[in-house]
Design brief:
Layout lengths: L1 H4 L3 H8 L5 H12 L6 H18 L6 H15 L3 E2 L12 H7 L1 E2 L1 H14 L4 E6 L2 E6 L6 E4 L5 E3 L1 H12 L15 H18 L3 H14 L4 H13 L3 H14 L6 H18 L1
Length: 278
């Protein structure tokens, strides 16, 4: 486990590929951006110990779906993980070391703990990225149970999922069954980064918002919009030359984008301003 303490988010994302662990990636993110003294391996060991404790709680339960439900009862009942409804926006809810220390989180961070423990127990579990609210699936695809870690691991019907989407994302149209598809691990990490980016933008902490977007670029290099957004954040931070370079890179990557003309005009105005300053 020591090797995790000696690597970086970028190295982990590159080496793990599609098998990227949201736990490992999240802990490296926490160390690099918010908790420089953090030893990620300590928290991986904590999750492994948690899996051992959960294994005892699941003794005698053999059905895969029932084991998934029993794991939810253990984590969100006996162990005490819960959603932080009183201070949802607190960034500590998104840093996995803090979630484990405080036993408080938001839907996706609580789901990551559930998924990581479930994987160590060999359970068929998956993350499900509903619009606006992350949940988990327990059991196989033929007979899945959907659980809401933020609300105590309660079992969700299709109507419950529809209501979550309506209340969290404001979508009131037809429910899209594709929303219940498993979310790949790299997309889970991207969603965690996007949550933190949104928070740091809301408090105008440009350096940390930039740090989140830099990792999104590493994680999803084929998404030109991340490069554009990074350029905008550098502009807000006053780094006009870097902003101009990034917007130029975006235009080269996506010359036919719907916003290409708007971005081009913004970049050109920036270049004119830089020329005047020189």
């Amino acid at each position: 486990m020591v090797e995790l303490d000696q690597t970086t988010f970028a190295q982990e994302a590159a080496q793990a590929g599609e098998a990227l662990s949201p736990l490992r990636a999240g802990l490296l993110l926490a160390r690099e951006c918010a908790y420089p003294g953090l030893r990620p391996s300590d928290y991986v060991v904590q999750v492994e110990d948690l899996a051992l404790a959960a294994q005892a709680a699941l003794a005698g339960v053999s059905d895969p779906q029932a084991r998934g439900l029993a794991l939810a009862e253990f984590l969100f009942g006996a162990y005490g993980l819960r959603g932080n409804a009183d201070n949802y926006a607190d960034p500590r809810n998104s840093y996995l070391n803090q979630v484990l220390d405080r036993r408080l989180g938001i839907p996706i961070s609580l789901s990551v703990i559930y998924l990581e423990v479930g994987a160590r127990l060999g359970l068929p579990v998956a993350g499900v990225g509903l619009p606006g609210h992350f949940i988990v699936r327990a059991g196989g695809a033929d007979q899945p149970a959907y659980l809401d870690p933020f609300h105590g691991g309660r079992v969700l019907s299709r109507d419950d999922c529809r209501e979550l989407v309506r209340s969290a994302a404001g979508l009131s149209g037809a429910f899209d069954p594709a929303w219940l598809a498993p979310t790949p691990p790299r997309n889970i990490v991207a969603r965690m980064l996007n949550n933190l980016r949104a928070f740091y933008i809301s408090v105008e902490d440009w350096s940390l918002a930039i740090a989140m977007l830099e990792r999104l670029v590493l994680l999803q290099p084929d998404v030109p919009g991340h490069v554009r957004d990074l350029g905008v954040l550098h502009y807000r931070a006053g780094s006009f030359r870097q902003a101009s370079r990034l917007l130029d890179d975006y235009l080269k990557r996506a010359p036919q984008a719907a916003d290409a003309d708007t971005v081009r005009r913004g970049r050109d105005l920036m270049l004119e301003e830089l020329a005047r300053l020189n």
